[in-house]
Amino acid sequence: MPVVSMKELLDRALAGRYAVGAFNIVNDLTIEAVLAAAVAERAPVILQTSVKTVLSYGREPLSGIFRALAADVPVPVALHLDHCPDRELISECLAGGWNSVLFDAHELDVEENLRQTTEVVAEARKTGAHVEGEIEGIQGVEDGLGSDAAPAVYPLDVAIEFIRHTGVDCFAPAIGNAHGQYHRAPELDAQRVSDLVAATGVPMALHGGSGLSDAQFTDLIARGCAKVNISTALKESFMKSGAEFLEAAAVGGKWDPPSLFAHQRAAVTAMARRHIQLFGSTGRAR
Q1: 104: annotated binding-site residue?
Q2: Is the pLDDT of residue 138 over 80?
Q3: What is the pTM of this model?
């Protein structure tokens, strides 16, 4: 199945009040694992690439790996660039086949953020791509971007005007969520999600999903979080399963890389399937 528009995936999810999992892949093995989970669950899926991953692989090699692995997958897939403040890299990825981007300009004042996001939306439209926007940073550091300081939260009408003026296809609100693992149970402003969706009709993106309770996920998705980002849980599944396998290999004196890769792939696939089921997107592929 060809790469599908993120807007198409999220508009359907919003209407059906389920969410599409957006998994921050780190290499070809994790791409394979997440796609295998989506196929097993017959679910749409978004593969996200951080700026760090794009720069590590190079835009063209990473795009090539994605397209080779996704070419014959029988479920809808979108390729998304996560948290990117670099306009030049956004342009390169849009030209290189990414069909959605998050222009992360929250460090700019709202007026300048609005102006530049409007330009990014216009640029994306030329390639048929879509844009996620934000005006408030999400607490926590992810792949070298972000801050542990609590973000400023703007009045609701400021966020609504931003969404309407820029024409973004998805919006990432700050509701007390955070990147990385939570040190204590977060107090979320779920009503903000309901209010933004009611005022704009635009799907919301939930960042900092790893570590939220099942009840929190279910509530936020019902309110209109149609895209849920999963990064920390993927990295932990990938690295902890690898560490577990290597510890056993050292004890047994058996060093078999293909078995290591299969073990990690299975762990990431299981993690992704659990989230897809929780988000209600099982059986939604079409």
Answers
A1: yes
A2: no
A3: 0.91
